[in-house]
Amino acid sequence: MSIEMGMTRRLALAAGLGAMTAAAPAFAQGEIKLGAVLSVTGPASFLGDPEKRTLEMEVEALNAKGGLLGRKIRLIVYDDAGDANAARTFATRLLEEDKVTAMIGGSTTGTTLAMVPAFEDAQVPFISLAGAIQIVQPVRKWVFKTPHTDTMACEKIFEDMKKRGTTKIGMISGTDGFGKSMRDQCVGVAGKYGIEVLHEESYGPRDTDMTPQLTNIKNKAGVQAVINPGFGQGPAIVTRNYRQLGITVPLYQSHGVASKQFIDLAGPAAEGARLPAAALLVASKLPDSDPQKKVVTQYTEDYTKKTGQPVSTFGGHAYDGFHIWKEAVERAKTDNAARVRDEIEKTKGYVGTGGVVNMSPTDHMGLDLSAFRMLEIRNGDWTLVN
Question: What's the fold here for domain 32-148+293-368?
Answer without folding.
Answer: Rossmann fold (3.40.50)
